[in-house]
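FAS1 domain-containing protein
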Amino acid sequence: MKSHLKTVMIAAVAGMGLALGAPVARATEDARAIEKDIVETAVGAGKFATLTEALGAAGLVDTLKGKGPFTVFAPTDEAFAKLQAGTLESLLAPENKEQLMAILTYHVVPGAVTAADVVKLDEAKTVNGQKVAVKTSGDTVMINGANVITTDIAASNGIIHVIDTVIMPPKI
């Protein structure tokens, strides 16, 4: 009983939308999702293969598996596919590791910033030290011109918001 209550509470606190009377299997599944860190959550989603490859090439996997909390504006594989031909391949080359790291850390904000928090902001300082612009219009939220297409994906060490475009820092 105590274990079941803890599982349900964890899922509810994480905003997983757990309804009263939900089956125990569902509650346990949701609680396990929260136990995954940002990297594990991204890998499990199946639409961030390019992002996770880039995190590996930049040496940032251990950082985003760390304590956090972090908020990641995560570009999908389709977002990376929109980059100019050759750009991704160039960034993944070992000699461009610092440039790749600057771009990826521009997608990360320290702390756990929920969608409800994001819409109250005009800008946010990223881990790389530069700021991203936040624009809200009705139900649309944009980060430096990238549309936020999914919000508040909970991870044990932060939150993922999915974006449809790779955002580039002004200074690389």
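thats it. Strands lie at 70-75, 108-110, 123-125, 131-137, 140-143, 146-155, 158-163. The CA atoms of residues 9 and 85 lie 47 Å apart. bye
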